[in-house]
Amino acid sequence: GQQVMQIPQYQHVQEGEDFTTYCNSSTTLSNIQWYKQRPGGHPVFLIQLVKSGEVKKQKRLTFQFGEAKKNSSLHITATQTTDVGTYFCAGRSGGSNYKLTFGKGTLLTVNP
Amino acid sequence: ETGVTQSPTHLIKTRGQQVTLRCSSQSGHNTVSWYQQALGQGPQFIFQYYREEENGRGNFPPRFSGLQFPNYSSELNVNALELDDSALYLCASSLGGVPLEQYFGPGTRLTVT
């Protein structure tokens, strides 16, 4: 079945440093979503990418979808303590339009 | 706040028992998806209901079942509980049979002893 892998599993940064998490799928995706989950909280939708090579920005966050639609990345510029949490990618393949497969997530901690 | 509510917040059950978890979707949303999230893992898709019909299922055994009601609220039932069923159960509400943006509820923490 479809697998979605994320690296790194953990990332600790100093406030102000940049952060990137990478997501790779074993199959071609029709779209990919990114979620953030604060400690003790629930996943919160950040964005969806659909087109090959798509790049979207939300303030300090930049999301990319690979040309082959099998990988994606989330980059945060100048991290802040409010960025702390686990970032998940979740992919949907063309054959299972209803099913989102989540990666294991990257836990980001930020030292003030 | 997403407007998605779940009950109960926490639950402790014994192995072999049955449990029912409830979810009220956001106003106007007709699709509910259920996920199981083990500690330190990403959410795993259990199944999805669209307009009261199950329209997708993940790799979970038949003892995981569900319902969606005319008001689009939903239930997740788990029979013959096993220790490995201990997890956070999340429901996510969205609009449309192939959901785009999903709004998650706060989850129900189930502990099986």
Write structural notes for this entry.
In chain A, 0% of the residues lie in helices and 57% in strands. Chain A is mainly β and 112 residues long. In chain A, the strands form two sheets. In chain A, strands 2, 4, 5, 9, 10 and 11 form a six-stranded mixed β-sheet that branches. In chain A, strands 1-3-8-7-6 form a five-stranded antiparallel β-sheet, with no helix packed on it. Chain B is an all-beta fold and 113 residues long. In chain B, the strands form two sheets. In chain B, strands 2, 4, 5, 6, 9, 10 and 11 form a seven-stranded mixed β-sheet that branches. The radius of gyration of chain B is 13 Å and the shape is globular. The interface between A and B is medium-sized, with 21 and 27 residues.
Could you name the key traits of this structure?
heterodimer; A: 112 residues; mainly beta; B: 113 residues; 7-stranded mixed beta sheet; 50% strand; globular
What's a concise summary of this model?
The complex is a heterodimer of chains A (112) and B (113). Chain A has no helices and 11 strands. Chain A is mostly beta strands.
